[in-house]
């Protein structure tokens, strides 16, 4: 039915076993999907960085199969030298699939088809007639259809921007998103039935939400991180250059340990409270010595050796320090203590219970001139 061989099958089985042993896979259905669906058909080649340059790795190269069946994300498309599509880390994929709590016969939607591998896992679990997947890149849509057909699956594969909804598709029992959003596009909620489950990367975390009868989504974040490429066309922070440091800036010092603010736990909170920031670490001899942060309105801050310079409409470093002190006050809460509520009017994130919202620091005090 598809190009396969014993070596690939053995590596798949070993991957499924590792993911079960580390707790990423908790159900026999998803273990069987990982053990049966050939990832190498969906990733016939990938790119890796060697001494700062991108190198293409294909089936003829040594180590190709080992890499494909390792627990690693694989860059599968470059545009103008920048990664624009990938096959996600298998452990992260199955953790999200487990969180969907899929049941036999469920209709499942997917946003960001990519290579088609995740759709293949879904087809194995619920049958291809119960799967619809949407991808904004027409070239990837064509490749995904071909690869899914090679392994015997023919789900509905749609070309389009899911942020406006999934067209005529409605009444889905489950929806999984595998591209990064700063804010969940509420139009997608209309494709899910009341009581349906949505798993979606928001900032640096994965939110598991349930659709209520009032059209709102609410739920909590999963324990692990989320490392997905931003949705195409979203305002990625890197698209806005660092605005520079004019002479007329505010200068000061900080007693906050810069390294503490760069830890994964706080960066997750920062992404929820202040989405869309551009960031750059400055290192010396492998140690963090400085940090630059900026956003689209022209606000910026530069921390170096305990000294702070900031400018623009908002005191950006002061805002981050205020958020950091809130984070420490609550004893550095883990991801699963955070939740999210999404309505047609926007989203709000909270800690422990919906009324305990994150501090509103988006409009922090303006820089005095």
Give the mean pLDDT.
90
Strand content: 25-35%
- What is the molecular shape? globular
Radius of gyration: 22 Å
Structural class: alpha+beta
Taking pLDDT < 50 over at least 5 consecutive residues as the criterion, the unreliable ranges are: 234-238
Order of helices and strands: HHHEEHEEHEHEHEEEEEEHHEEEEHEE
Q: Tally the helices.
A: 10
Largest sheet: 9 strands, mixed
* Biggest sheet strand line-up: 7-6-5-8-9-10-11-17-18
**Helix percentage:** 25-40%
Kindly report how far apart the N and C termini lie: 69 Å
Briefly characterize the structure.
The protein is an alpha+beta fold and 369 residues long. The chain contains ten helices and 18 strands.
Structure, described:
There is one protein chain. β3 (74-79) and β4 (82-87) form a beta hairpin. α1 (6-21) runs antiparallel to α2, α2 (28-36) crosses α6 (117-126) and α9 packs across α10 (316-329). The strands form four sheets. A nine-stranded mixed sheet has the order 7-6-5-8-9-10-11-17-18. The chain has a five-stranded antiparallel sheet with strand order 12-16-15-14-13, with no helix packed on it. Strands 1-2 form a two-stranded antiparallel ribbon. The radius of gyration is 22 Å and the shape is globular. It is of the alpha+beta class and 369 residues long. The chain is built from ten helices and 18 strands. Helices cover 26% and strands 30% of the residues. The N and C termini lie far apart (69 Å).
